[in-house]
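Hi R.,

Here's the chain you asked about this morning:
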Amino acid sequence: SIKQAQHLLSDSSMETNLAFIHSNYGFIPAEITKLETQHVPLIEALSIVKNVETKIEKITGQNGISINQKFKTILQKNEGYQIIFRISKILSGEIQSMEGLPEDLTSNDLIYFKYAPITTTDVERSFSRYKNLFCDNRRSFDFENLKNSLVVQCNNVSNI
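And the predicted structure, written out as C-alpha cells:
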C-alpha cells in the first residue's frame, strides 16, 4: 500500500487534479459544517444545498460537468430529499397542495418539520449519547437509574 501511495504521488497529474479540486470544491467542507449545525431551519438547510448545487453547476470542463451530473442524479434519486424539499416549499408558502407527500403525513405533522435536520449528525449524536448506557458493563443498571440517567443526559445540552 505504501508503494501504491508513492506511485500515486509521483503521478504528474496529481498536483493539477488537487488544484482543480481545491479551487472548485474547496467550499464544500464549510457548507457541510453549516448543515451539521443544530437547530438550522429546514428552509435554510435546503438553501445551503441549493447554493452548493449552483456553485457546482458553474464548474466547467469534463470533470466539472460529470460531477455536476452525478450531484443532480443523487438528489433526484433521493426520495427523502424530494419529500423534505416539498415540505419546505409548503412551509414557506410556495406550495399549497399536499400532493406528492406520503399519505400518512397530515398538515399538523408538517409544522414539526420546521427544524428538521437533513443530515444524520443529530442521529449520530443521539446514539453516541446513549451507547454508554447500553454497553456491556451496565448489567446491574436498574430501570429507575436508567430513567434518571436519561433525564440528565437529555436535559444537558452542553455535552453535545
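The chain has a mean pLDDT of 84.

Let me know if you need anything else.
M.
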